[in-house]
Inverse folding.
């Protein structure tokens, strides 16, 4: 398991966005911050290894954001809960503080096996973006392993 983070220039759009993608066994599901519908569901199998990737982009023209914490975690539970937080036994959790000039994009990934049948969720969220944007930004996805 590992994390790869790095800036790359050329992000587009008009807002600060998070894209989340889960892949395994030839299947793929994506989630994006700001989705009005409930979180998408990725169907997995117990002991299957998931590849989780995310990208974060500051598409807000002229709006530099500093000291933004990118908080990424995977835990057991329901992604439909209002702003779910990781428990003390989260399967994966990382946090990184980063500055985002306008047009900057960053991303990361990790691989994680599903330990057993159950309901899990992956969430990528900002902490500190509300100071400039008036809101935090998050993308979340449910993982179901029947």
């Amino acid at each position: 398991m590992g994390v790869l983070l790095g800036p790359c220039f050329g992000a587009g759009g008009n807002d600060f966005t998070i894209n989340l993608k889960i892949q395994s066994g030839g299947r793929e599901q994506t989630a994006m911050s700001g989705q009005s519908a409930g979180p998408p569901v990725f169907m997995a199998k117990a002991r299957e290894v998931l590849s989780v990737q995310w990208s974060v982009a500051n598409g807000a023209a002229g709006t530099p954001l500093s000291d933004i914490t990118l908080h990424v975690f995977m835990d057991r539970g329901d992604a439909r809960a209002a702003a779910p937080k990781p428990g003390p036994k989260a399967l994966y959790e990382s946090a990184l503080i980063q500055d985002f000039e306008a047009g900057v994009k960053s991303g990361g990934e990790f691989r994680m096996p599903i330990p057993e049948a159950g309901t899990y969720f992956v969430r990528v969220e900002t902490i500190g973006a509300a100071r400039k944007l008036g809101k935090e930004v998050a993308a979340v996805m449910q993982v179901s392993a029947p």
